[in-house]
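Quality-control log, excerpt.
Job 1 of 2 completed; input and output follow.
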Amino acid sequence: MIRRKLKLEELNRISVEEFQKADKIPLTVVLDNVRSRHNIGSVFRTGDAFRVEEILLCGITAPPPNPEIHKTALGAEDSVKWRYMEETVTAVKMLQDSGYIVYAVEQAEKSLSLEKTTLQKGEKYAVIFGHEVHGVQQEVLDACDGCIEIPQYGTKHSLNVSVAAGIVIWDFFRQLDR
C-alpha cells in the first residue's frame, strides 16, 4: 500500500511563540566543547522536536546566531531556550544546585546502559554531550551524578555527537512525556 506524504500545512506545526509557552520535558542538554556548528544546529533541532527545557553551550561550543548552526537548526535556535557558559563544570554545579540529576553521555567505568536507565517522573535531568574527538572532559565526568552509555554492537564504538544526542533525547522524552 502506498501512502501519500503529508503536506507541510497538514503537519500542524506550532509557532515559535507557541513553542516557548508549551510544556517542556524536564531535560536540559549541555554541549561540552562541541566544535562542529552543524552538530550544534542538529542538537537544537532535536531539542525543538522533543521540547527540551534548555540547551547550555559550554567552552568552545559556538552560540547562535551563526549561519552554520542555522543551516541544520532550521530556526530551532530561535525556539529552544539556550545559554552560553564558559565552564562546563560550572554548568554542572549550577544544575545540581537547582535539583537536576546530571548524566554525562560517555563510555566510562560503571556507566549505565541507556536501555537500562529508568527515569523518575517529577525529577529534572541534564545530559552532557562532549567534543567530537575527546568526548566529555574528565573533570566534567567527575562532577556528574553518573554516566550513560549508548550500547553499540558493530565494529565502531562511537557515534556522531548529534546522532548520540538524538538517541538519548528521544529516550528521555519517551520516558518523561508519558
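Job 2 of 2 completed; input and output follow.
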Amino acid sequence: MKRIKIIGLVIIMTAAFKFVNAQDVPMPAPAQKEAITLQGGRLHVGNGLVIEKSTIIFESGKIIGASNFNSNTKGRVIDVSGKDIYPGLIATSSELGLVEIEAVRSTRDVNEVGLINSNVRASIAYNTDSRTTPTVRFNGVLTSQVTPNSGRISGTSSVMQMDAWNWEDALMKDDGVWIDFPNLFSYTGWWAEPGSFEKNKEYDNQLNELKSFLLESKAYCEKKDPLPINLKYGAMRGVFSGAMNLYIRAGGIKEMKSAISMCEELGIKPVLVGADDAYLMADELASKKISVILDKCHSLPSRTDDDIQQNYKTPTILQKAGVLFCISISGSWQTRNLAFEAGTAAAFGLTKEEALATITSNPAKILKMDNKIGTIEIGKNATLLVCEGDIMDMRTNKIEFAFIEGREISLGNKQLDLFHKFAAKYEIK
C-alpha cells in the first residue's frame, strides 16, 4: 500500500512539473488572419540590399510587397520608422528542442545507440515545449536545423519553424544525413586535465567501413524495389538523388580533403561542418562548389600555433574566395548568440550585410530552402523581425516584433520573466 502511494505521488509530481513547464512556454500564435503592413523601417533584405525607408506587406503567411516607402498599405499598419527589419535568423547544426538540460541525461534526446543511424529522424524527438526555444527566439532565431549527434552516421536533420504545438506542425522538411568523419588523430585525456594527440590507429578501418556503407547504400537505392527492405540504406535515397544534403563533420584539412575525395567517387557534393581548417583550402572549396557550415567562431583556434583571432578572420577569407558558407553554434541555448558571432565576423572584414547573409540567406541556400526563407522578398514566407537597433550588436539588439509565416509570435520567456521579477524586487530601472 505504501509503495502504491509513493508511485501515485511521483506521478502527480511529474504531471505538475510538466504543467508548470508548459506554462513557462508561450502559446503558439494563431494563423495570420489579416494583412499586416510594416511601414517606414530600414529593410535589410538579406541578400546585401538595404532599403532605407520601406513598406512591407504580408498576408496569409506570405510576403506580398517589399519595396521603397509608399502609401499602398493593407490591413493592420505598424509604424516601424527608425527601426531595422531583418529576415528571421536561421540556426544550422543545432540541438534546439533535442536538449533541455545538458547535465541531465533524461532531457537529452540528441544521441542514438549504435554507429550507423541514417534512418533516425531528429524531427520526431523535437520538443515544442522546450523552455530554451523562447530564449533563442528572443534574439531573432526563428528557424532551426535540429541535428542528431552520435555514431559514425548520426541520422537525418530536420528544419523546424520555432512556434508550433507539436513537431508535425513545426517540421518544414527533413533535409540531410549527418556523418562524423573519422579523425586522423585522437585526443587522450578529458576536459579537466591535460592530454595529448595520438594517431588514430583505427582510422583506415573506420574510413573503409564508412565507404562500404555508402557504396552499399548507393547500390540499394539504385534498385527500383529493393528487397529485403533496409531502413538504414533506404534513408540515404535522398542523398544520392540530390534531394537531401550529406553533411560531414570534419575539422582538419586532411580529413576534409579525404571527405571530398570520397564523395567525388560517389557522385555526391557534401556540406562540410565545423571546418576549422577551411581557410587553408578556401580556393579549392570555391572551385569545387563545396558549401561550409562554420561552427563556433567565438572559440580558440584548433592549433596552438594558429593566430588567436583566426576563427574571427576565417569568414572573410571564405567570402573573398567565393565559398558559400554560413555561421552556426552547435548546441541548444548557446544558439541565442548566433547574431553576435556574425557581428564579430563583420568586425574582422565582412561588411554588415555580408555578415547578415551568413545567418539568413546563406544557410537558406545551403538547406535548399531559399525559395521560402532567408530573405524578405515577394512570395517568400513572412518570417521576419523588427529590431530597435543593430541585431548583430549586443549593445543595441532589442527585438520588438517577430513573425513566423505571418504569425506574430510572443517574445516572452522564462529568463525575461526572472529579469522583470528581480528588477522589481531590487528596484532596478
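Post-run check on job 2. The mean pLDDT is 92.
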